[in-house]
Write a structure and sequence with these properties.
The protein is built from seven helices and no strands. The chain is mostly helical. The chain is elongated.
């Protein structure tokens, strides 16, 4: 580490490319969750506010809302329409997914710096990435259920193993390395 604000590529040569591949996959899952929440709120806005001419305005409104705002807006809409225990369960999942998404979007890249110094932590980081994308995928599964309820359309696939399948896919490049050690 050269101590400057600029990256010294040589400091990261011992970080396996598979780590960056998994980060890219994790970012894709995080972005997908954020997009699912945004789409759900857009759908709700259309059902509540569409007047036949304001679709673009509603779309712009949806694009401007951040993930936390979308989760809070959804909470305020459904709070009085579902049993309290289900509400608490659902919004705990969504809030944990928001935190996991923020970790992936804002903090996970720092792990490459740690890995350049402590390469033996790769397995630990793989487990952490797996945990975070599992949390996000569980929340995404719940968002899918809400969309299915609103649109009265069936869920397109069996989602029972969705979080595990997503975590395996995201961490697949890393597991090839960590299983050898």
């Amino acid at each position: 580490m050269n101590g400057s604000i600029f990256l010294d590529i040589e400091d990261y040569e011992n970080v396996p490319d598979s780590f960056y591949a998994s980060i890219g996959r994790a970012l894709w899952i995080a972005q997908n969750f954020e997009g699912s929440c945004r789409s759900l709120m857009f759908l709700i806005d259309i059902k509540k506010e569409f007047d036949g001419q304001n679709l673009e305005e509603l779309g712009e409104k949806a694009l401007k809302r951040l993930l936390g705002n979308n989760i809070q807006a959804l909470a305020s809409i459904v709070k009085n329409n579902i049993p309290e225990d289900i509400f608490k369960y659902l919004f705990n999942i969504l809030d944990e997914a928001r935190k996991a998404r923020n970790f992936i979007a804002h903090e996970i890249t720092y792990k490459s710096g740690e890995l350049s110094i402590y390469p033996e932590r790769l397995k630990e980081f793989t487990e952490e990435i797996s945990e975070k994308v599992s949390i996000i995928s569980e929340a995404d599964k719940n968002i899918c259920g809400i969309v299915s309820t609103i649109t009265e359309q069936p869920i397109p696939t069996d989602l029972s193993r969705y979080p595990k399948n997503i975590a395996n896919w995201v961490c697949e490049p890393l597991k090839m390395i960590t299983s050898k050690k």
